[in-house]
Input
Amino acid sequence: MTPAQKPALKLVPPPPAGATAAPDLKAVPGGPAKASPAPKLAGRSYGDLLAILVSLAVPAAVTVWGASYYLAPLGGRLRHPLHALLKPAGPVGLGLGVFGFALFLFMWLYPFRKAVKWLAWTGPLGGWMRVHVVAGLALPAIVAVHAGWRFDGLIGLGYLSMFVVSLSGIVGRYLYTHIPRSRNGLELSMEDVIGERRALITSLAAATGMVPADIERRLAVDPRPYDGLDPVRTIVRMVQDDVQRWRVLAELKRELSRPHAGHAALTGTELRDTLRLARQEMKLTQQVRMLDATRKVFGYWHVAHRPFAITALIAVIVHVVVAVWIGGIGF
Output
């Protein structure tokens, strides 16, 4: 074989029924490897984090600015120079309250979009899910500033329910990301998963000069099954697997940053692209292994999440109706 030739890749038949491991890839002689199509998996994005930080910036700034008002006792607030601005019916408090209420109602469009199929023209479910999560995480801070950081009566019940929903939403988002999905947010079939994993390993082999079997062995994580684990232990195992995946990626980065087996060290864009492919391959392998357990825990999460969300919705609507009815809001 001349130096210009590279081993072609051949897909070995899948494992017996019931096995969760993806098919192995072997290098066989016979010609240059053909480039595989670009993987269609959902990639990493920091847009959601940026949107959450921006959404939290305004209530955080208002809280810092009015800290003396929010820390004052209830009687002292009435005489505070910022009372007219920061009280729930004041320009700042009311503005945040109206914005929070609109954001809260907008969040309920996501389950409506999921249930009504003909609304597909409004955008992919993945995009709706991202907006839903961002709004859910930013909403408690916005509502807290509107309420003057006081939670009495019905608004206290609504806020507590909203806060629980927000915390559970973090868990739900974590579970959601552990189900294999395409860029449009739809769950991948097992055939799609096999195809995506094959493309990832082929791309890694071309980038690193390693044979696919070595790549799979190098990126292997904890192979223990998830069968028989309760929901709490399932989530704990997921976190452990994620931590282990980050460690393997860190070791791989150090290894690829120095020359090995006649290949020059990867630097710059090559190293970033290779690590991105490796991260996706490891994540996909982990997702396939835990898929049944993740779906089960996700189902339990839905059952627990919905009552708190409905309670928060009812409490917020009643609060708004009462505030308008008694004239506590002046537009």
User: Anything to note?
Assistant: Residues 47-178+297-325 form one domain. The radius of gyration is 26 Å. Residues 1-39 have pLDDT under 50 and may be disordered.
